[in-house]
Structure formats: structure tokens, C-alpha cells
Amino acid sequence: MTTARKAIENLSVEEAAEELAALAAEIAEHDRRYHGDDAPTISDADYDALRLRNAAIEAAFPELVRSDSPSTAVGAAPSGAFGQVVHAKPMLSLDNVFSDEDVVDFVNSVRRFLAWSGDQELPITAEPKIDGLSMSLRYENRELVTAATRGDGTTGENVTANIRTISDIPQTLPKDAPDVVEVRGEVYMRRDDFMALNERMAAETGRVFANPRNFAAGSLRQKDPENTRARPLKFFAYAWGETSEPLAQTQFEAVQRLGAWGFPINDHMAICRSVEDLLTRYRAIEAERASLPYDIDGVVYKVDSLALQERLGFRSRSPRWATAHKFPAEKATTVLRAIEIQVGRTGALTPVARLEPVTVGGVVVTNATLHNEDYINGIGNSGQRIRPEEHDIRVGDTVTIQRAGDVIPQILDVVLEKRPRDAEKYVFPDHCPACGSHAVREEGEVVRRCTGGLICPAQAVERIRHFVSRNAFDIEGLGEKQIEFFFNHEDPSLQIRSPADIFTLKARQDGSLTKLENIDGFGAVSVKKLYAAIDERRQVSLSRFLFALGIRHIGETNAKRIARHYLSFDALRTGASAAVMPEGKGDPGNAEWQELVGINGIGSVVAEALAEFFAEEHNQQAVDALLAAGVSAIDEEPVGDVSSPVAGKTVVFTGGLERMSRDEAKAMAERLGAKVAGSVSKKTDLVVAGPGAGSKLKQASELGIEVIDEDAWFVLVGQ
């Protein structure tokens, strides 16, 4: 059966799991290209469509929910050019919605989580979503001490010296401000300032920025703060991180207090008391969009009550109490000049359109994503026809493209009346353009993959690029060109064909007559910096180490979930290796398998991928080679309140809960430092059972695991 060709309501459990796995892999690859390489190959709108498909399947099959689903990754790892700042509270991004129905679903999801009826009023703020660079400003004793970018949500770049040059940002706060407060907001540039500066830069350097956001980001990353001072950056405050005392009781009141301290706040912010109010406000802001002096790309909704925000808490990458209602994408028409095939680290063949340059929303674009061979033929991810059959995409076609955000656009449709008479139907290659191996599309897959594996240079290079990318080992100085240079070099002392080769490069060079510093493009200073960057990354966190291995279906969030469960690499490797899988399936009688598959958000597909990785001898050898080269994974720190009575315990919730929803119960347990599992195993410490508990309660009784009810849970945790 082909899961990607079915409507969701017609999917079997097995088919849903397969499609979730395929979506997770595709989204992880796009995350890597966008956040890790700054080289995206998919549009914002189409990336969002993938997330929506994944979310819809998860809603239909909640037992298959995975932690590397569409709302997982946050931003990108901080650059090595600046010092790093660990955020006292994570800077998470927002989920997106796109239609009136999505807004209704958001409000209803908040009510469901809180177990609120539709009669209870739920005030929600609405404000423009500024298209800028997120910033966290830390004040201690009312003095600005640190300014940091979002980075990967946990760690950002220290840009304090540059931030001090922005006149909008107070250096000190008034006496009524808390002793410690992190003010968060957006650094941006007005459109008129951007146009004037871009014209000047074009005349002086020949370089221009695509949009005000990129210009603002580039301005903040100037090594000399005086260069930043010369660029008229602005700031809007709209949130906060750590505070030594509460700012207010509501979101609106807290933002007004920030304004009273001297921070610019957006005067378009308003309180809405119904879905109808939210949609009316959205349309009013959209109507003003063109006349505003700054770029916005949507409207942000936030539950107004801070007490309710606390109860609602967070998902892996976003708050449950907020979302961004995005504006429609912008469109243009141009000519498709060529279709090129790129090969990813998993062997996926991805078609990319090369376009006649065209301006869309003020940005000149030359490339567009074509996703896969089905999309070229007008077929969507669910097998439905998204364009008429004769509207297949051909070289020479005039096409309509859509762009949203800062990523490569997608082709929406073909202007059939402008099609050249000699335009031929595109034939998707059945051989890898990099190694010549067969390219196979397996049953249930929408992607065609190279079967060359280890002999395919494109896959090998992509795996190494993934290994050193920002959210993995983050090795400065090993970019695309350098990796290809080292991979293709004939001298063994300069070859990097596997991750371990990176960490033995200096030792091999010390005994070689062919010195890297004597090769054009390097030099003694750059080589010294490269070696230093490599040495700095011989130790990384367990989650980064696991993500860097490039195991299929294990993106950043899955890596964090698994790392936070096992805490050490030895425990992870031992557990995964012992998770025996007869005929490729999980063994219900295997305790290690049950532990692995029971990790909250980790289903059987991810568990099998991890176990299969450590079952392969060549993967074991690659890991051993890394360890032998002096590379190690730092033990993961436990998450949550380590002093609580359930910290470190594995908890399973089953049956109906009356005082809170199941989602709220899981979120509470994780805040208290517990590990929430989806199934009962020998490793389970506690089962919280409500009315209607079935097989899990029976399993717990058979295994002698402690079982308590909901009231006893609240007594236990002191709530």
C-alpha cells in the first residue's frame, strides 16, 4: 500500500506510521538545509504544508505521535564568531496557523487542554508579527548586562556590545523594575532605512541584502560595534524570560509595563475575547500591512492570563498558549530554465528548479523547490491531484511561483498557453547522478533514493556536512567547499571520508610532507583556526552527538528526547544494542525494546531506526573510530525539578483523568523532572490510573508496579 497516496481517514495504523516516518525524514532534511547550511530547498509555505499533513495524521493516530513531528526544531545553533549565552529560560519559536479554521482549532485546543467549556471567556491578545531578529536582553540590578540572539533556543550569540548601540534599547531600567529581568523582543529595520542603506552598499561594495530582516541580522553580527551603530536598527519589546518577580497578571499588562520602562511596544496590540474578534483583528492588521513602516508576516495570538500560560506550558519547541497566524504567500510568474537533481545524505533525490530571475516580494529568486517526481506530475503528498494532468512541469514552461519568508519558493502551476511546442515531459532519473547506482522508490515512499550507500560520494559528503552542521558538532571552518576539498583529495593525510577522519586530520598532517597551509585557499592562520575549532568540538552534548550520527528519523528533538532518557552515551548504546528486533520488528518480550519504544514521543519507527543503526557493524565501527579519536559525548543533564519526589522516575498515565487533561498531566510530570512513557514496561516506576484504565493497568499489576489514582498523584507531587 502507498500511504502517501491515501486520504488520512483511509490510512491503516501501519500506513500512518510509515508516512509519519517519511514526513519526519523529509522535514529533518529541510531543517538541516535551512538552519544548518543556510541553503534551503523548500518554500516556507510548502514546509508548513508538510507540518500540517503530519499534524493531521497525528491527530487521527495519537498513539503514533513522534517527537520529531512538524513542530520540533527551534532556530539554528549559534555561530562561533561570537561568545555564547545560555538562556535562563529557552527562547522557543511559535507554531503557525494559516486559515480561519486553524484559528478555531487553536482556541479549541487551549480549551481542551484546560478542560474549559465554551462558556468560559478566554481573553487572547493579538499583535503584529514583526519580521526581524529575536533578541533577549538581560538586566541585573536594572543595568543591561547581556544581549543574546535566539540561537538554537537554548544557547544564543552574545551581541551585547552591538545591542548597546541601538537607541531604542534602554541601558538602565527604572526603580520599579525587578532585580533580574530578561526583556525579549525583535530587532528590525524600517523599510525606508533598508532601501537607503542597500543603495549605499550596492554602490560601495556591490553587495546587497535580500530584505530588511537579513540586513538587521547582518548588522547585529558586525564584529565592530561601530559598524552596527552606523545602521539604524530598531526594537520592539513583546515578551520576557527569567524574572525575579512577576511583571503582571496578564500578557497585555506586562507588555504595557515594558513600555513604561522605556521600551518601544507595538501600538497595534489588542485584547480579543472571541474567535471572531481575533479574525477581525487579523484582517485589520493585514489591511494595514503595506502602509506600516516595517515588515510583518502575520499576527501573533497569546492567551492573556499569565496563570493560564503557566498551566498550558510548552511543547518541545513552542508554547501551547500562543500561535502565529501567517499572511498568504506572495506570487510571481517566470520561466523554468532547468531541472537539477540534488542527492542528500539519506540518498534522497530532490529536484530543484532553476528559474529566470524574478522579483517576488522585493527579493530576487532564481531557484524553486520541486519536492519529488509526483509533484512535478501534479500529484500531492496524499496522492491527490493538485494540478490538472496536462499541467505537469516541463523545462521551458512559464510557471507561477510562490514565496513566503526567506526560503526558496515553490512552483504552484504552469501557464499552459505559454508552453513551448517542443517542451518534453520531464523523465525523473532512475539512476543516481552522483554515482550511477540505481535510484529506487520504495513502496510507501514519495522519495526516490540512491541505492549506492557507502559508495555514493554525494551521500558521503552530505553525511559529513550534516555531522559538522550547526546543530550537530558545529565545527567552524568546515563548510561545503572545504568538505568537498578534503573528501576528494588524493593525499591520505588530507582526506576526510568519515567523521573520525576530521579528528585525526592534524595528527596525519604532522607526519606528512603535503602541508595544508601550503595549499591555495588555506594558509597558516586559517589552518591553525581549523585545528582549534576541531579540538573545541571533541566533546559535545549527548543529544548533539546522537543527532550528528545522521540516523534516519532522529532529528534534533528526537535526539534530545532519547538523550534525556538515557542521560549517558554508554547507557544509550547498551540499551539500543540490546533492543533485539526479530525480522526488523520490536520484540514485545524484550525489556530494552519496551523501554526504548516507551519513551514519550518515540514510536516504533524511530526506535527501530536507532536499534538498527547500532545493530550494523559498520556503524559500530564508525562510532568506535570517533571514540578512539578522542571524541566523547557529555552526559545529558536531567530536565525539570530534580528535587521533586518524581524526578528521574518513569511515569505512565492511563485511563480518564478528571482534574486535568491527559496532556496537562504529562506536561506537569515533565516539569517535575519525571520521564513520561507511553507504555508500561519493567522500567516503569509509577502508573497513574484513572477511570476506564485497561491493558496498561493490567500490565502494571502483573509486573508489580506501583499504581495510584489522580488524587494520590496530586498529593505525591504536592500540588
Strand coverage percent: 15-25%
Q: Look at the structure and name the CATH superfamily of the largest domain.
A: DNA ligase/mRNA capping enzyme
* Shape type: globular
End-to-end separation: 48 Å
Sequence stretches where pLDDT stays below 50 over 5 or more residues? 1-5, 35-39, 71-80
Total strands: 24
Number of helices in the DSSP assignment: 24
Bin the helical content. 25-40%
Mean pLDDT: 86
Q: Nearest-angstrom radius of gyration?
A: 26 Å
Topology-level CATH name of the largest domain: D-amino Acid Aminotransferase, Chain A, domain 1
State the strand order across the main sheet: 2-11-10-3-9
Q: Give a short account of the largest sheet.
A: 5 strands, mixed
The CATH class of the largest domain turns out to be: Alpha Beta
Please state the structural category.
Answer: alpha+beta
CATH architecture of the largest domain: 2-Layer Sandwich
How many domains is the backbone divided into?
5
List the main descriptive attributes of the protein structure presented here.
OB fold (Dihydrolipoamide Acetyltransferase, E2P), globular, alpha+beta, D-amino Acid Aminotransferase, Chain A, domain 1, single chain, 719 residues, 5-stranded antiparallel beta sheet, 5-stranded mixed beta sheet, 35% helix, disordered N terminus
Q: Can you tell me about this structure?
A:
With 719 residues, the protein is an alpha+beta fold. It has five domains: 3-73 and 329-418, Nucleic acid-binding proteins (OB fold (Dihydrolipoamide Acetyltransferase, E2P), Beta Barrel); 102-326, D-amino Acid Aminotransferase, Chain A, domain 1 (2-Layer Sandwich); 475-536, no CATH class; 541-634, 5' to 3' exonuclease, C-terminal subdomain (DNA polymerase, domain 1, Orthogonal Bundle), CATH 1.10.150.20; 650-717, 3-Layer(aba) Sandwich (Rossmann fold), CATH 3.40.50. Helices cover 35% and strands 18% of the residues. It is built from 24 helices and 24 strands. The chain has a five-stranded mixed beta sheet. Strands 14-13-12-15-16 form a five-stranded antiparallel beta sheet. Strand 13 (349-360) and strand 14 (363-369) form a beta hairpin. Helix 1 (13-36) packs antiparallel against helix 2 and helix 17 (556-566) packs across helix 18. It is globular. It starts with 12 loop residues before the first helix and ends with a helix.
